[in-house]
UniProtKB/TrEMBL annotation:
<feature type="domain" description="Peptidase M20 dimerisation">
    <location>
        <begin position="303"/>
        <end position="415"/>
    </location>
</feature>
<keyword id="KW-0464">Manganese</keyword>
<dbReference type="GO" id="GO:0046872">
    <property type="term" value="F:metal ion binding"/>
</dbReference>
<dbReference type="GO" id="GO:0006145">
    <property type="term" value="P:purine nucleobase catabolic process"/>
</dbReference>
<keyword id="KW-0325">Glycoprotein</keyword>
<protein>
    <recommendedName>
        <fullName>allantoate deiminase</fullName>
        <ecNumber>3.5.3.9</ecNumber>
    </recommendedName>
</protein>
<keyword id="KW-0256">Endoplasmic reticulum</keyword>
<dbReference type="InterPro" id="IPR002933">
    <property type="entry name" value="Peptidase_M20"/>
</dbReference>
<keyword id="KW-0659">Purine metabolism</keyword>
<dbReference type="Pfam" id="PF01546">
    <property type="entry name" value="Peptidase_M20"/>
</dbReference>
<comment type="subunit">
    <text>Homodimer.</text>
</comment>
<dbReference type="InterPro" id="IPR036264">
    <property type="entry name" value="Bact_exopeptidase_dim_dom"/>
</dbReference>
<comment type="similarity">
    <text>Belongs to the peptidase M20A family.</text>
</comment>
<feature type="compositionally biased region" description="Low complexity">
    <location>
        <begin position="57"/>
        <end position="75"/>
    </location>
</feature>
<dbReference type="GO" id="GO:0005783">
    <property type="term" value="C:endoplasmic reticulum"/>
</dbReference>
<dbReference type="InterPro" id="IPR010158">
    <property type="entry name" value="Amidase_Cbmase"/>
</dbReference>
<keyword id="KW-0479">Metal-binding</keyword>
């Protein structure tokens, strides 16, 4: 996060550049409150920025402290002094960062980070995570889907548990923060409570879960770990195979986990035994960096539909068929793709709704709708042949499910009209649908308060509200929402980059995330 110019514990009137110069953005003009919709994230609330010094000496200090490994931040200003303050910084930031780097080296590939469901690297990660959980005073176990659990119960016995989790698997050529940050931040916060002798003061059970698979890289099935605990994973999923023909069940059996249909059913948590689910995750988008805040509360996770569009025309010779006589599916597909872009950029101009959506839905679409063509293929794919068929995919996401279905209806209608005009055959298949998940308002308010409290301790200044934003990416919280109420906290990442080795979170922002979870846990005492 932004590095303070001075961290003397005796001063309450420090100057801070809250947004580090490492992120090449200034938030000095703090009397302005611009309305922001950027890419696929909706900022519900923009805040007054933290106190920022405008003196030249402060600017110089900020520039020199922009490194992600800053040693100047002080976690716990105003609330803790001496050894406690140093302890918070050492565990919540320094140790957490070291553990992120250590886990980032646990890979099945030598040249890049790759850790998939039940791979050798995954098994090594399980051992490391259990060790860290036990170091924090948690009782640990691995369930029949390979999820790692660490739990502590209050002195008066087990109560409905607060679950805090994220995923330990990665994509191919991954960054080291996606998933791992949420697990390590929770473990570190609990370790601080243990060291301070407060772990036994919790009024409810706390369970940290490192989910075995969220990305779905190996078996092309997302949320294997969290879906099993939420009770929404079909038994047939155990028979899905990877590229080598190994089933999910085989992969578990190879690692001494014998899972059958009855075992899978037993994994489902009783909703009465769970109080709620919280997930800390990197934003994977640019909004927090843009507004200059290290933390944001997630309003909800966008619903998603994936389409497969097939356009068929008349295959022919590129040199002998006159332009006026062609039935070219490639140019037809190009027109469909440009139409999709126009509809998604300006839904108000295209949406008919037919009485199904109100002004709120239309406004939500205008702020949150994103559409992507990620794949396109042509047959026979030769430079001197007019294609006979073109196929492309559409990924459409928005926080409003009613609006999503309305857009899909209108978009499909207009696509078919274009195909008819061009004398092309067009088919549109819905390959995947996932409803939006709205975060629990009360849980979100608690996370917001915890984040504000953490930032106040870091800066020594009273803070306004932290940003509230939408997630366009899927998270384990989507699966867990079928089990219990959910809340999420986002952490700023450089450039909004994720699923890449360039993925990066400032060390100070790692510390801020840990302190926010600590504040949240202390509210459960």
């Amino acid at each position: 996060m932004a590095v303070p110019h001075s961290c003397s514990s005796s001063s309450s009137s420090r100057s801070y550049h809250f947004l580090s110069n490492a992120y090449h953005t200034s938030f000095h003009h703090h009397h302005h409150h611009p309305s922001l919709v950027i890419f696929w994230c909706l900022v519900i609330s923009l805040l007054s920025p933290l106190a920022v010094s405008s003196s030249s000496s402060s600017s110089s200090s900020s520039a020199s402290s922009s490194s992600s490994s800053s040693s100047q931040i002080s976690l716990g200003i105003g609330e803790t002094e001496g050894t406690n303050q140093d302890l918070h910084q050492a565990i919540l930031r320094d140790e957490s960062v070291a553990r992120l780097h250590e886990l980032g080296q646990v890979s099945d590939a030598a040249a890049h980070l790759e850790r998939t469901f039940m791979s050798p690297a995954s098994i090594r990660a399980i051992k490391i995570l259990r060790g860290w959980m036990e170091d924090a005073g948690l009782s640990t176990w691995v369930d029949n889907m390979g999820n790692v659990h660490g739990r502590v119960d209050p002195k008066n016995g087990s109560t409905p548990a607060l679950l805090i989790g994220s995923h330990m698997d990665t994509v191919i050529d991954a960054g080291k923060y996606d998933g791992s940050l949420g697990i390590i931040s929770a473990i570190s916060a609990l370790k601080v409570l243990k060291v301070n002798g407060k772990l036994g003061e919790l009024k409810r059970s706390i369970e940290v879960i490192a989910f075995s698979d969220e990305e779905g890289v190996r078996f092309q099935c997302t949320f294997l770990g969290s879906a099993a605990l939420a009770g929404i994973m079909p038994v047939s999923r155990l028979e899905v195979t990877d590229k080598s023909g190994i089933t999910v069940q085989d992969a578990l059996k190879e690692n001494s986990i014998d899972i059958k249909e009855e075992n899978l059913m037993q994994l489902k948590y009783d909703p009465a035994s769970v109080w709620g689910y919280v997930e800390v995750h990197i934003e994977q988008g640019p909004v927090l960096e843009y507004v200059g805040y290290p933390l944001g509360v997630v309003k909800g996770i966008a619903g998603q539909t994936r389409l497969k569009v097939t356009v068929k025309g008349s295959q022919g010779h590129a040199g002998t068929v006159p332009m006026s006589l062609r039935q070219d599916p490639m140019t037809g597909a190009a027109e469909l793709i440009v139409l999709m872009e126009s509809v998604c950029k300006n839904p108000k101009e295209y949406l008919t709704c037919e009485g199904q959506c109100n002004e709120e839905t239309i406004e939500s679409l205008a702020n949150s709708l994103v559409c992507t063509v990620g794949e396109i293929s042509t047959w026979p794919s030769a430079s001197n042949v007019i294609p006979g068929q073109v196929t492309f995919t559409v990924d459409l996401r928005t926080i409003d499910d009613v609006g999503r279905n309305a857009i899909l209806h209108d978009l499909s209608t207009r696509m078919y009209q274009i195909c008819d005009k061009r004398s092309l055959l067009c088919s549109i298949e819905r390959k995947h649908d996932a409803d939006a998940v709205i975060s629990d308002p009360h849980l979100s308010l608690q996370l917001k308060s915890a984040a504000q409290s953490a930032l106040k301790k870091i800066t020594g200044e009273i803070q306004d509200e932290v940003p509230v934003i939408m997630s366009g990416a899927g998270h384990d919280a989507m699966a867990m929402s079928y089990l219990t109420k959910v809340g999420m906290l986002f952490v700023r990442c450089r450039g909004g980059i994720s699923h890449s080795p360039a993925e990066h979170v400032l060390d100070d922002d790692v510390g801020a995330a840990g302190l926010a979870i600590l504040e949240f846990l202390e509210s459960q005492m």
